[in-house]
Amino acid sequence: MNCMQARKYLSAFMDSELDVRTNIEVLEHVEMCGACAQRLEEQRQLKGLVAAHVESIRAPEGLRARIMASLTAAGGRRLLSWATWREVASTEWLKASAVAASIIVVFGLVYGVLLAPPTPLNEGAVRAHMAWLGDQVPSFMVTHDARKARGYAFVKFVRKPTVPLLDDEAFELVGAVPAEIESMNVGHFVFRYKAVTVSMFIFEGLDLDEIAGTEKRIGDGFVKVDSRGRMNLVAWKTGEITYFLVSGLPQSDLLHISGPSRAGR
Amino acid sequence: MYAVALRLSGDHKEAEDLVQDAMLRGYRFFDRYQEGTNVKAWLLKILTNIFLNKVKKNANRPPMVEFEAVEEFIGEAEQEAAEVSSSDRGFRELLDQDVVRALDELPVEYRTPVLLSAIEGLSYRDIAEAMECPLGTVMSRLYRGRKILERSLRLYAHSIGFLRKSGGR
């Protein structure tokens, strides 16, 4: 991908809205191209300015009360207009229950607005995770790119040629999941494999259909392996969670390592 | 919700009415809300939809710009790629009022996706549903909207730098 192609995607790349392949191509380009990396940073600043402005605006005093009053009034009308309720709510007691139920719905709605559900991927947790990973594997440079809105992150380990490997010729799952990270809904694996290990990841909620390629059943889930340029991709799904790995490892090795015994939490 | 309503409409009273209308509609059609999805996104979609329908109905407002062709979108991207970035100052020195001014100057069809995309958790799909347009349109309008916004803010940033250099206020 050249600059011309990359720049048309930078805006959507920043928003985590590109398909996996294009996303990887843009990511690779931005890592190599200082000018496009700067453009991306400017885009992020711009989005940050708009977000900061929006977050700084406070609703006027009294708006909440006004809305609550109108919702309560609308609830009363709505409940009385339901034919079924007219039949069922023939006693004062049932009418009172209906009003109570409407109030619960209103509170639920307001609660949802004030405390919106958390996004699938916690960016702060990813950052903490990266710091932890960096300590675990000093022979690799760890970079990441959080795809927050899509609920997954690319994590990339790049071998530092000047630093000796901790453990060669071995593939293993390294380290336990720190409890504070696991509780923040971030997938977490560290692999070392042979002397040239390059493994990357994280993810939850990635659509398995985003990756085409060889499919393979793995116990209670299944896996897809695909290639893109220098990269090999693997996505595997176990239960409700889809994991995604980008790697420099050969496809055959990816199929090998993506078995449930190693991939499970 | 109020913040988005205010920046969309540019008017405090209209923004309050928009929020109230959206909450009422949300309540009335709560059975259409899919449990487990982002309720804030759902309500923002309703709010945006109400606002854009008002805009369409209001003859005094300028008409919505038609969907830009994909070719045009790509063409602009290519042209932009050929441009050399003239500033390394960034936008850090800009004031909130500069952002407000630049946003308010942005045509509504661009301002809407630019605002909504800045809200945490809102996807292009959510924005497309809110604006009742295809995903590709969201992408191209966002691209173009951000570009216009960037130009305006760059001008402001440039004037800040110019004023500082000349010792003015």
What does this protein structure show overall?
The complex is a heterodimer of chains A (265) and B (169). Chain A has 265 residues and is an alpha+beta fold. The C terminus of chain A is likely disordered. Chain A is extended. Chain A has three domains: 54 residues; 52 residues, no CATH class; 141 residues, no CATH class. In chain A, strand 7 and strand 8 form a beta hairpin. In chain A, helix 2 packs across helix 3. In chain A, the strands form three sheets. Chain A has a four-stranded antiparallel β-sheet with strand order 5-6-7-8, with helices on one face. Chain A has a two-stranded antiparallel sheet with strand order 1-2. In chain A, strands 3-4 form a two-stranded antiparallel ribbon. Helices cover 47% and strands 18% of the residues of chain A. Chain A has ten helices and eight strands. With 169 residues, chain B is mostly helical. Chain B has one domain: Up-down Bundle (Butyryl-CoA Dehydrogenase, subunit A, domain 3). Chain B is 69% helix and 0% strand. Chain B has eight helices and no strands. Chain B is globular. The C terminus of chain B is likely disordered. The interface between A and B is large, with 49 and 56 residues.
Secondary structure layout plus pairing:
The complex is a heterodimer of chains A (265) and B (169).
Chain A: H1 3-14, H2 20-32, H3 34-56, H4 63-81, H5 83-88, H6 92-114, H7 123-136, E1 140-147, E2 152-159, E3 172-173, H8 179-182, E4 191-192, E5 214-218, E6 221-228, E7 231-238, E8 241-247, H9 251-257, H10 260-263
Antiparallel strand pairs in A: 1-2, 3-4, 5-6, 6-7, 7-8
Chain B: H1 2-9, H2 12-28, H3 39-57, H4 70-82, H5 96-105, H6 108-117, H7 124-131, H8 135-165
CATH superfamily of chain B: PhyR, sigma-like (SL) domain
Kindly give the count of domains of chain A.
Answer: 3
Q: How far from one another are the termini of chain B? A: 35 Å
Question: Which descriptor suits the 3D outline of chain B?
Answer: globular
Average pLDDT of chain A works out at 55
Total domain modules of chain B: 1
The total beta strand count of chain B reads 0
What's the CATH architecture name of chain B?
A: Up-down Bundle
Oligomer: heterodimer
The CATH topology of chain B is Butyryl-CoA Dehydrogenase, subunit A, domain 3
> Compute the gyration radius of chain A: what is it?
25 Å
